[in-house]
Design goal:
The chain has 968 residues and is α+β, with helices and mostly antiparallel strands. Helices cover 13% and strands 33% of the residues. The protein is built from 14 helices and 48 strands. Strands 25-24-23-22-21-29-26 form a 7-stranded parallel beta sheet, with helices on one face. Residues 207-326 form the Glycoside hydrolase family 2 immunoglobulin-like beta-sandwich domain.
Length: 968
Amino acid sequence: MVKRVLDTGWLAARSTEVEVNGVDLTTTQPPTTQPNSPWIKALVPGTVLGTLVKNKLVPDPFYGLENESIIDIADSGREHYTFWFFTTFECKLSNNQHVDLNFRAINYSAEVYLNGHKEVLPKGMFRRHSIDITDILHPDGQNLLAVLVYPPDHPGRIPHKGGQGGDHEIGKDVAAQYVEGWDWMTPIRDRNTGIWDEVSITVTGPVKIVDPHLASSFFDGYKRVYLHSTAEFVNKSAWVAECSLNIQVSTELEDRTFLIEHLETHHVSISPGANIHYTFPQLYFYKPDLWWPNGMGKQHLYNVEITVDVKGYGESDTWSHHFGFRKIESHIDSATGGRLFKVNGQPIFIRGGNWILSDGLLRLSKERYKTDIRFHADMHFNMMRCWGGGLAERPEFYHYCDLYGLLVWQEFWITGDCDGRGDPVSNPDGPLDHDLFLLCARDTVKLLRNHPSLALWVGGNEQVPPPDINSALKTDLQLHPYYMNSNNSGTSAVTPMINDPSQYLDGTRVYIQGSMWDGFADGKGDFTDGPYEIQNPEDFFKPDYYKYGFNPEVGNVGMPVAATIRATMPPEGWQIPLFKKLSNGYIEEVPNPIWTYHKYIAYSKPGKVHDQILLYGTPKDLDDFCLKAQLVNYIQYRALLEGYTSHMWSKYTGVLIWKTQNPWTGLRGQFYDHLHDQTAGFYGCRSAAEPIHVQLNLATYSIEVANTTSEELSNVAIEASVWDLEGECPYYKTSEKLTVPPKKTISTFEMEYLKSKNPKPVYFLLLKLYDAFDYRIYSRNFYWLHLTGGDYKLLEPFRERRPPLKITSLTFIKGSTYEMRMHIQNTSEKPDSNTLLYRNNFIRTNGSCDESDSSESISLLDGEKHEISLYEKIRRNFSREHNKARVSEVNGTGKGVAFFLHFSVHASKKEHKNGEDTRVLPVHYSDNYFSLVPGEVMTVTISFEVPPGVTPRVTLHGWNHHDGHTIL
């Protein structure tokens, strides 16, 4: 098969401004871009609103209050957002070739005109369309294509006060429901009308391959493995096709060489115009490399290729897909009542997030998806939940989840607010066309089912589909008998297959009817998820914090950095909230109108949680407010995940945070903003969710060790040191040697500094879990704490105590790619002590994950050895390119902790406008928002791409290094 994606050269025009019809457009009167022409350059894939924004015909709806100046479809009528899209393409066919025009998704219906011929594409946002255009291509190869796209039938109206899903009318269609607005999102004015996914033409011979299905079965403790595969073959010719069906399985070795594991050929005859489903004989593998989720092992992928050769023609079509051998199971855990997941027989404690979509205007790209998914893997997450009000996510999303090891919970397009609940109560019968919903659901299953990252199907968010749809989905997605028995992976006898599993629509993954049923929340559909607000950090650890075993949604704050506010809002949006004191002693934050529009969530909960930003003192300006918000972000999200991990398996089986990111410039529930800059909450999660982790229980002040891996951790010890604001170490303790069982959180000793004489009102605690034999660090965790009933206001004068730093940077440049290793040392004098604080020179760095899985953990004894070994490691990948080494020393004004250090990357400019955003984004950091005690060393990896002609500048800031230092 030859595939060509049609993603360039498109034009668009509003249908009411085009005076000719589709036949004329694609024959005698193609569009022009002459002056006064209604035609503009179009964004395909994309939406009408995305095209209008690109051409600056409407303002950026994500900037300030500009969305309010864009007319809503409820006021303009559907015609205003009914658009023509036009392009040309070249295609010449040889004898017996056939060509299809493919639309992977359109919202919501369309008329397609090609060279004067018309085809109507039926309704539904989540379905594929394929048109055989063999007989209507122009003989000269030049073809004209026009597509008239209609908005959803029921775009709805936005109530004055907004609301969850607007007036819920969008729920009558099979479409994304977030577009009418939510408590985290403003309305999308065109309701995402457009050709929002890939358009392509595919050329095949007389026989075409359609929707192969791959499945695997495991026996003898995963030593004996079988690959099952079924595909549809369509004979488009007028004669019997004598076919050789080939299946090949290979694995990629180093240096882009491939090892062929299996190659088999089978012969079939296909009648003229017939469709057949052919199941290949199962292929046997002995001890194949398995696919594991993030934190459990490598994400090994095989390449499965199916080809069909036709006698007298040759190769007619080919299909290939990456496939991971893995078995995923889940059941309701008797100990906790939560749903417990197993992968390859190993239980996995779920720590992940809720995913909406990458961009609210559906400006989707492989590059953006790659960054999004890698960010989640960098946080050590192992699951993402694709929320029912968003998308059936695209194959590119799943491709990167496969590569980075993120399990995916995929919901269908049902939400409580639009499908039976909400205010006012919405229609409980779901979309008007139930058959259309099921057609889209079945097509989505076929599109995504071969991805190992796909973990389960769920009927909807906080609601179940209508009974007939729910019953049909249960039937369609019933498990194959093999996957119902969780013990068969250990049997030694050959287990006969009752029907080949690849003959099922799926058959390998469980279907759950709704997000709060069957082991999630209370399991009965009651609103027992949440909460979605600021918390007292110690509450996350308390046994009564959450009653149920698996929380599918728990939310919190998400203020970005000040540069993002300036980049996404006019100056009137830079005003920080007013702090209004209430009669009960609590503070109510009163944000400016732009923050309110962008769904800001406060850092206080009057009556329950005192303002967490004011704990650091009243912020002076936007920069001060946002920096203090990052301190709170870090504490909140680290405590959230550590609290759940503290009760791993004894109380909880998993938690998903609402939510990980924003598909627009929102101000709540995010670990990185829409511009791809991380908040400090990102690194709080990264710390808390590491597979082996040492932590402080904020409710009991006992020190705990969490081992979420499958291996016992033996001969380890804990070092706990307290540091005051003067740079002294008044408390130091190491544990005896410990053994930590796999999949277990244990409590060790109490951190007793608070019981000492005259504990300081504000202090730092550094925990290290290390190998008692070679002092290798498994986990490092740094806290800033205050006495009960106190606050952090003493950190304000501490900003002027600037400790000295030494920063050794190694920079490797390959084209536009920068790879940096920053070796940062707090050169403050250590206090005189007989303690073992020299161990602070040992660190462990987790390499940033990448598709090649080439990162290595590095343990170092001193800076010099580290720099030499690290240089050698990087040099192999950048041997012919430019590299730089640099040492920067920052003089200090006093010894002590270098607190809350963070890097950023900017474009170097001699002159830039006031308020101009010079950041280079995205950037991947192995750590950020970190602190160093006297004498301590840390290595941070930084990688990024720079735009053409840009020279990057890397700076380091910190709480007590607020002036910033240029490193590169």
